[in-house]
Every structure is written in C-alpha cells, then in structure tokens.
Amino acid sequence: MTRYRRRTAVLLTLLASVLLLGTSSAQHVGDPFPTFELFDQAGVLVTNDDLVGRSWMINVWASWCPPCRAELPLLERAALDLDGEGVGLLLLNAGERASVASAFLEREGLALRTLVDPDTRDSSVEETQELLHRVRARGLPTTYFVDADGVIRSVFVGELLPDVLAERLDESFGVSWRP
User: pTM for this structure?
Assistant: First the structure.
C-alpha cells in the first residue's frame, strides 16, 4: 500500500470512529466497566458476571479498521501467553453483525471471542452500539484494561504495539509479559 493510501485509510478510520462512537469523553480510569448483556459470535449471552474474578483486556474493534486488524494477532498472542496469569481477552465489535465479524476472524485464522450484534435482531438484548455509547470510546481501536473487580485500570486508544501492551499489562495488572 502506498504511503498516501495508508495515510488516507488511517484518516478515514479516525473519522469513521468519531462518527460511530461519538465525541463524548471516555470512561475514566477507576470507573467500573459498564454493565452489559451481549451475544458473542457463537450466540452465547455474555454479561459482566462472566468477567468477575479475572482481569480482562477488552478491545473495541471493527473488521474495516486497519489499526484494529493490525493489532489483533498481538492481542491473541498476549492472551494465549497470559491465560495462566488470570488475564483474558474479550473483543467488542463496533456494530458489525456476527456473520461479518466471524468471517473476518476465521479468514485471518484468529481464534478470538468477540461480542457482536446478532445476525437477527433480538430485542431482549442490547446491541453493541448501546454499550459503545456508555463506554464512550474515543476511537478505534480502544483497549480497556479491566481488573478482576470490574474496574478500569487503563485505557489505550489506537493500535497497541508490543512494548506499549507490555507496559499497560504491567501497570494495570502487575503482569510481566514480553512479546
């Protein structure tokens, strides 16, 4: 990809992120992660109760977002390495249907769990946009580092690079990880 095309793609991603997620301020460190009830790509209902007792990297992403796509393999590697340390990874897709998000992850060979909008609207469960509004992410990708008590310990907006991810894991959870 030429430098111009890459720069244009990044600018379009940022613009779409602002339009999609809004411009309100982000959740603050020390706040509890908002409560939610969403489906994962397998149709399993996931709630905050499912996250209790473990620290989590909650990553807001979309398949059309170049920085999101670039960081997913790194996040998967970290999650696999840290599974025994009590740190999990949960993706929160930014409004794509289950079939779209699942097809992308499968095509990329990523075995990651993501919260998605069901392919058929289920009025008894909120859509991801409702949670994204409450989380108030400032762009895509955004990663929330949430401790075992459900409290946000760190928020990172933008593509996570290996050194930054290692630093955030240490600061947020006291976990040493090297890519």
Answer: 0.84
